[in-house]
Amino acid sequence: MAIQYLICLNKQGIVRLARFFQPFLGDSKDGHATIAQIYKLVSSRDLKHQSNFVEFSESTKLIYKRYAGLYFVMGVDLRDEELIYLSHIHLFVEVLDAFFGNVCELDIVFNFYKAYMILDEMIIGGELQEASKDVLLERLTYLDRLS
Amino acid sequence: MGSLKTFIKEVRSAKTLAEEKSIITKESAKIRTKLKDDHLSLEKRRKNIQKLLYLYILGEKTHFAQVECINLISSDDFQNKRLGYLAAVLLLDEQQEILTLLTNLLNNDLNHPNSYIVSMALSALGSLTSPELARDLYPDVEQIINRSTEPLLVKKALQCAARLVTRDAALLEIFYPYCKKVLDNHRLCTHGVLLGVLKLCQSIIEARNLYEFDNYLEILASLIDSMPEFFSLLQNLNSAVFNQEFDVNGTSDPFLQVELLRTLRMLFACAPEKTMQYVDKFGDLLTQLASIGDGSKNSAHAVAYECVRTIFELQLDQSLRVLGVNILGNFLSGKDSNTKYVALNTLSRVVPQEPRAVKKHRKFITKCLLDTDASIKVRSVELIFAILDETNVQELTNELISFLEISTEDDKDVVNYVVEHIMVVLESERYGEERWRLDMAIKVLELVGEYASYEKVNEVMIMINNARSIELKASLVLKILSTTIDAPADSKVSVENSGWKLVAIWCLGEYADLILGSSGLTEVKLTAWLANMNRMCYDEPRVTSFILSAALKLSCKIQSKSQIEDLRLLIAGHSKDTNLLLQTKSTQYGILFNQPTKSKKAILDAMPFFAKNVVEETASSAETRQPVKSPQAAKETNLLLDLFDTDPVPAAIPGGLGGQKPPLNSNGQKAAPHVPTDHEHVLQAADKIYDCNNLSVYGKVVFCAHQKAVIELNIQSKQKKIINLHTMAAVAKLQQLSMGTLSSGVIDPSGIAKQQLELTGSGKLKLRVKLSYTVDGAEVSEQFDHRFAESL
């Protein structure tokens, strides 16, 4: 249950966002080694003809989707429902898009802390807390003005 | 020291990896020094932490700033606090002890008059929930749920509460009343708050086994009371009154629908009796949900899929299960790989529950074999074998074979799986007549024999060997050999297909007499082919080993003197093989080759029918009328494997222990067993070198010269019968040992078993011998050392 991590990578495998909702289990303490493996796995898959799901480890499968040059990857439990998490990713991207206004990779690079803010309003402790784009955007616009 | 933006630009402008690395290292060092400076202004500190977070994203080490982010949180300035919390959730995790420093800060912020600060504290607590924090801070979370009128805070507080319960199950007693309380407060119930309520319910149900007090049933009952509310929520989401705000591609808030379904499913599963009254209602609702949705969008699929999962996890009644299978069937028929993937996954889980309904969709399942996604292929193959039965075996086998025909190098794993499983099917008499099964097995081998394991190749040989009619055998062998020998250019057999090679060579050896002369397969052709194979496969010991046996067998099936001579040369050619086993085989076969034709024929006749060892039906099992196991399930004696096995225990281990099995299992010995006739007489002039209760061992140096010695051991039993005798021996370091065959693994009372040892090297003749055997049902192991007078 719950999202274990959400990672956003570009086509070259450079991390743009990484958020771990659970500490790593077992010996794989190193988040970035894991990300490198994830990149290797996800980038080797066919965009059009393969599913957006791939088993990653004994406890985790990846739900991912590529939007333009960016991969959004979620690690979830093997028993979790895949399709709805794909909707999670899509919702996150839609909110990013609406918030930045036609979002591109550079928006996320230079405003990573804002992207994290969006993520934190949408997901808490690995669970979706708000599914309404309107509610999210209203809140985010307000939070954005506070700085 | 520039701003964050300048830093990011600098990193991006780096032309090489090394340059980038050096910019990052420099900046990292700078940040480190700066943060150590106690007089640094908060403004500057914030800037540094911002850069540090960018370093975090880049994968750099950031642990040195963990305390620093806690300092920022303690600041009264909103901006500092916000960055501090962001840094905390990124750099810390819930296993770190440093979290105790957060307890007071979170406690203050959770009670802060500014709701933005409360919200940040909740987010942080939701991410960093250690059991200690859970116990210390739950009253603050409870108070927010209880008092706050802001949905934004309540939804976060509920999610936090759900997390707290997972960390400390005792807390579920505190939080459970709020599920109902919040639901009853309709003004508060936004979709976000509902998601929070559902998460809390799920946590409470999941924590039930960890909860130590005995009022859990009451708690559960209170959750069950909310079920009608969940039903109506689910119904409203799917009613005509459509809330545009939550529309996701035509499905009304799929996220909430999925959570509702999941929560209901958990409630039904953990309290089947108490929820009985709702089962019918739930069934109706699921039927309704599953049939809505235009079925082409991911969000609609997500809801339908969750319905299907619910149906099967709760094992709802049959009509619903059929509905579930049909929804999955629809998923399969579409073009979307994602739905295919989940459908195949789920179908393979539900085959045992609803086999008939799943079988109806076999067309779409086999179509998935042609998918480009390997994981879909694997799953469809698994599913095909799961639904395979007598009625569809032909259709499915044909589909699998057409898949094998087009399979490529990338499909290796799938092909492996198919080969391993289809052979089991084809072996079984249940699945159609012999000729068809054999044809298919040979076809599979022809297509992808390189992927078949040796055991499977072996089984094909056994199948051919056991074929009932001689005509069938002849036609199979003819087919195999004419594809291989006559038209190698047209055949699809790849050069690496060693499985096919083995079978072809074996067939040639066993059944050359059946096909000689037909289709132009002359003696010359067969011999030449074998010789050619011998040249081509010099680096494949297993194939060579088969070639040697085939050559020997072929030699008594043909007439032409010159071809027989060719075969003899072929065998003799390996007498100096670097592979010791092939060398041994070649030598032994060389001896056999020169035997008179009559005795040779008797030894080299085609293999007999392999009776599969069906466990004999004993009187007791007959009484209880247990169904007899089908033959293919019974363990087989793999005689062929024994005969052709090229990797038995090595005959010689330099300076170590040399082991030798009794002749029944040894290499090539079955065709020419060496039966000792002088059982009763111990070798003359042998010394008694060991004596114990069960046996005596006599030893004699038969030959000793030119750095080579032959020692013969005679093991004589005393009063008891010895079985399972094994001998092992070790020699001095400068010598090498090669053990001959133990004449018999069984010694009758006062009988004798013989063992020859060959030593090469130099030094004194010393021997350490280990004997293991069974006497009176007890396993005994003895060991002794002996030094002979002679030396090398």
From TrEMBL, chain A:
Residues 3-146 form the AP complex mu/sigma subunit domain. It is found in: Endomembrane system. It holds the Pfam family Clat_adaptor_s. InterPro entries: AP_complex_ssu, AP_mu_sigma_su, Clathrin_sm-chain_CS, Longin-like_dom_sf. It comes from the Eukaryota. Its main location: membrane. Keywords: Membrane, Protein transport, Transport. One of its GO terms (biological process) is intracellular protein transport. GO terms for cellular component: endomembrane system; membrane coat. Belongs to the adaptor complexes small subunit family. This is AP complex subunit sigma.
Automatic annotation (TrEMBL), chain B:
Coiled coil: none annotated. Residues 681-789 form the Clathrin adaptor alpha/beta/gamma-adaptin appendage Ig-like subdomain domain. It comes from the Eukaryota. It is found in: Cytoplasmic vesicle membrane; Golgi apparatus. GO terms for cellular component: AP-1 adaptor complex. InterPro entries: Adaptor_Complx_Large_Subunit, AP1_complex_gsu, ARM-like, ARM-type_fold, Clathrin/coatomer_adapt-like_N, Clathrin_a/b/g-adaptin_app_Ig, Clathrin_app_Ig-like_sf. The keyword Membrane applies. This is AP-1 complex subunit gamma. It comes from Lachancea mirantina. Belongs to the adaptor complexes large subunit family. One of its GO terms (biological process) is intracellular protein transport. Keywords: Cytoplasmic vesicle, Golgi apparatus, Membrane, Protein transport, Transport.
